[in-house]
Structure formats: structure tokens, C-alpha cells
Amino acid sequence: MSVRKYSKFQQRLTPHANYVRHRDRPGNDIAVWGAFHGLGDLYSDQGKLREVEEMYQRALVGKEKAIGPNHTSTLYTVHNLGALYSDQGKLKEAEEMFHQALAGREKALGPDHTSTLTTVNNLSDLYRDQGKLQEAEEMFHRALAGCERAGPRS
Known about the structure:
About 80% of the residues lie in helices and about 0% in strands. It has about 150 residues and is an all-alpha fold. It folds into two domains: about 1-65, no CATH class; about 70-154, Tetratricopeptide repeat domain (Serine Threonine Protein Phosphatase 5, Tetratricopeptide repeat). Helix 5 (about 90-110) packs antiparallel against helix 6. It is globular. The mean pLDDT is about 85. Keywords: TPR repeat. This is PfsNB-ARC and TPR domain protein.
């Protein structure tokens, strides 16, 4: 889909997103919580950071209740909240989210899974931004070693 068509598509989705966003009781349906995460992604593409945070937080609370805090879908939302907090300059909150995502992903997916390594890399960037250069270097080396073990992607 071209950028122009995607932009028009997003404009058409926004009123529906706003309707869903204001629902009081979405229930315990994982598809609904996944939709809230997707709405966060939609708002992120539009630069609406307050709405992104609201959607990701609602998705996280719902997913934790519906499927548990260590499910890979829940951890995906935790990771994205970490990235959002990092972008907002909320470095302490970002670090907490990335550590939670990393611990869960290591356990659920293993230390060399691409999702785990993405969290390792984002944590490296965060440490660098915080001036924690030794921790950043350790994480960068870990991410590199994991990628090398994983081998080339086709």
C-alpha cells in the first residue's frame, strides 16, 4: 500500500478508533485488547502520543488479566510502552518496561529470539541515552552476539 493510500486509510479509521477508545467495558476478549494495541499503533503513526500511551496501557491491563503478564502478546505491549516512554523522554519508565519485556521474552522465547534481541538493542539505546555507557556497551555486544548466532535471514 502506498504512503498516500495508507494515510487515507488511517484517516478513515480514526473515527472508528475514537469510538472504540471511549468504550467503557470492552470485556475480557483478547481480540479487543489486541485492537486497543493496534489503535495505539495507529495513533503512534499520527504522532498522538497521549492517545498512544492510553491505548497501550489499556491493552496492557486487559491482556494481563485475560492471558497473563508473561504471554508474548502482553510482552509485545510492554515492549512498545517502553519504546513510547523512551521517545517521550520518560527514561526511568522506559527502562522498567524494557526490563520487564526482556525478562519475559527471554523466558518465553529464549535469549536469541529476534524479539528478545530487539528488546536488548532498545535497552542498549536507552542506556546510551542515559549516559550509562558500560551497560549500553554490554547490551550492544549481547545483541550483536545473538544476531551472529542466529545467522543470516533470508
